[in-house]
Amino acid sequence: MPVAGEQIWYWFRELDCQRSGNGFGANPIGFQAIGEWSRLRGVTLLQWQLDAIIAMDLKRREIMAPKIVDKEEPEQQVSERPLTSRLFDAIFPNKRK
Predict the structure, then answer these.
(1) Do 6 and 51 meet the contact criterion of CB atoms below 8 Å apart?
(2) For residue 10, what are the CA distances in angstroms to 15, 77, 90?
(3) Residue 21: phi, psi to the nearest 5?
(4) Count of structural domains, the chain
């Protein structure tokens, strides 16, 4: 971590640990949360610092997001027996008589 970025990284980590979620993943750190944090800490962020925090937040959520492509599930086999017409008739008998 470059020395110039250490303080921003510390601030981001502080904001990140207060992040909320919605059951499907992490919510973004919103401007309201950043503004409230800034007010409570007595920190006045410069534009580039705010931009850096937002960029770190975006990258963090990209990393945290589940990758659907990576989770290829093997095909589930329901039965080892092939479904034949005879087996089908045995499972689902004709109820008409």
Answers:
(1) no
(2) 9, 49, 67
(3) -135, 170
(4) 1
Give the structural domain span for 23: 3-64
**What pLDDT is recorded for position 52?**
93
3-state SS track over 74-96:
CCCCCCCCCCCHHHHHHHCCCCC
Q: Is residue 76 part of a domain?
A: no
Per run of 10 residues, the mean pLDDT along the chain (length 97 residues) is 85 90 85 94 94 93 73 70 82 74
Helix 47-64, helix 3-16: angle, nearest 10:
60
Place of tokens 């410069």: 46
Would you say residue 42 lies in a domain? Answer: yes
- In angstroms, the CA 44 to CA 12 distance is 14
What does the block give as tokens for 35? Answer: 């503004």
Residue 89 lies in a domain: no
